[in-house]
Amino acid sequence: MQTIITDNSESNNVEGEHILVSLTYIGKYIGKNSEKNNGVELTRILEQWRRNNEKSEITSALVINDHYLIQNIEGSRPVINEVLGTLINEYSYFLPHVIDVEEIEVRKWDGFLIKYLTSSAQDEEYTLKSLSAGADFNPYLMKKNQIISFMEAIFEDRDSQGDEVSYF
Predict the structure, then answer these.
(1) What are the residue ranges in the chain where pLDDT is below 70?
(2) What is the pLDDT of residue 113?
(3) CA gap 30, 34 in Å, rounded
(4) What global pTM score does this model have?
């Protein structure tokens, strides 16, 4: 008599659910009514993203100002692919551009982190460290390594200094 042993863990991971992926993208917010935007539309979108991320077990870090954003999301390969499709199909007014995709062993972020850039001296300092073109935050002028360093500097420095970062 022959015994067949099946490994359920492999059969349950046929889509790569066991592989963690990190996706970094930039976007320019053109909004549905960009001239009349008072932040309410963007706030609703971010709250929806936070809820969806939590349900899908995605962790992320988002840096945003009035016009641009950089986001790094982490999760299983199929979920990250689904999020990318949603960004392109449903949030086209963000004009997303993928900067980096890589498989990772451990997550870098804890939850849904947001940093809204202001014109404060500290925020300008972060931008100046990463950009040679001045203190204006425009990720389209940044190379991949500058974007990654910029994200790490903002969130790692804030955590170590005890400064406020929005954790949703």
Answers:
(1) 1-13, 31-39, 119-135, 157-168
(2) 92
(3) 6
(4) 0.76
Which residue stretches of 16-143 are H helix? Answer: 40-55, 77-90, 121-130
Provide the pLDDT for residue 78: 95
Closest to 113 in 3D by CA, of 81, 160, 83, 156: 156
Strand order across the 97-104 sheet = 97-104, 20-28, 68-76, 59-64, 112-116, 166-167
CA distance 130 to 145: 9
What's the rounded Cα separation, in Å, for the pair 17 and 15? 6
Bridge partners for 71 per DSSP = 25, 62
Residue 66, pLDDT score = 77
In contact, 96 and 88? CB cutoff 8 Å: yes
Task: Determine the length of the chain.
Answer: 168
DSSP output for 12-52: TTTT-TT-EEEEEEEEE--TTTTTT--SHHHHHHHHHHHHH
